[in-house]
Design a protein that fits this description.
With 170 residues, the protein is an alpha+beta fold. The chain has helices spanning 3-19, 22-29, 35-42, 153-156, 158-169, and strands at 47-51, 54-59, 71-76, 82-93, 104-109, 117-124, 128-133, 142-149.
Length: 170
C-alpha cells in the first residue's frame, strides 16, 4: 500500500476544515442535524465515550495537541439526536461575525455581580444556541464555540438555563 498517497488523501480531505476561518466552519456546522452529517463533515472520531444518557465523540482535525480535541460532539443515546457540537481553538480566535450585536446576550457565571466566567450567546433556528465561551464582548477572542440545543442547557449549563428562564419572565 502506498502510505504517501493515503496520507496525502487524508490531508486533502481535512484541509477544508483546517484552512477555513472559524466563521465559515461554524456556519457549516450550524447546519448539521444528524450523526450521519457529523461523520460526513468531520470523519471518524478519534475517541468515543458514554456518560449518563449521552454519547460523546471527540475528533482531532488539523494541528492539535495529541491530548486535545478540535471538535467534541454529544448525541443523546435514546434517540440519536444531536445535543451539541463544541469547537476548540488554539490559538484563541475572534468570532465576531458569528455574533451580530443585535442577536447577542452576555451571561456571567455565577451572575453579573460576581462574574467568574462569561460567554456570549446567540439564539439560532431550531431551538439551538451558539456560545462563545469566555468571551464577553466584541473583539474578545474565544478558545471554544459551542452549538447546543437550548433545551439541553439544563444538563450542561444549569446556571445559564436559569438566567435565560428568568429573562423570559421579565
Amino acid at each position: 500500500m502506498n502510505y504517501i498517497a493515503v496520507f496525502s488523501g487524508v490531508l486533502l480531505m481535512a484541509a477544508p476544515l483546517v484552512s477555513q476561518p472559524a466563521e465559515s466552519e461554524m456556519k457549516r456546522l450550524m447546519q448539521v442535524q444528524t450523526r450521519a452529517q457529523i461523520l460526513e463533515q468531520l470523519g471518524s472520531p478519534r475517541m468515543t465515550g458514554e456518560f449518563g444518557e449521552f454519547i460523546s465523540m471527540q475528533f482531532q482535525i488539523g494541528v492539535v495537541d495529541q491530548h486535545e480535541f478540535s471538535h467534541i460532539v454529544v448525541i443523546r443515546k435514546s434517540d440519536g439526536s444531536l445535543v451539541s457540537i463544541t469547537r476548540n481553538y488554539e490559538p484563541e480566535q475572534v468570532v465576531d461575525p458569528l455574533f451580530p450585536d443585535d442577536e447577542v446576550t452576555v451571561h456571567y457565571y455565577p451572575d453579573d455581580k460576581v462574574p467568574q466566567f462569561s460567554l456570549r450567546l446567540r439564539r439560532l433556528s431550531g431551538g439551538r444556541v451558539l456560545m462563545a465561551m469566555g468571551s464577553a464582548k466584541r473583539s474578545s477572542p474565544t478558545g471554544q464555540l459551542v452549538i447546543m440545543r437550548e433545551s439541553e442547557l439544563r444538563h450542561f449549563y444549569p446556571w445559564l438555563k436559569g438566567q435565560l428562564d428568568s429573562a423570559k419572565v421579565r
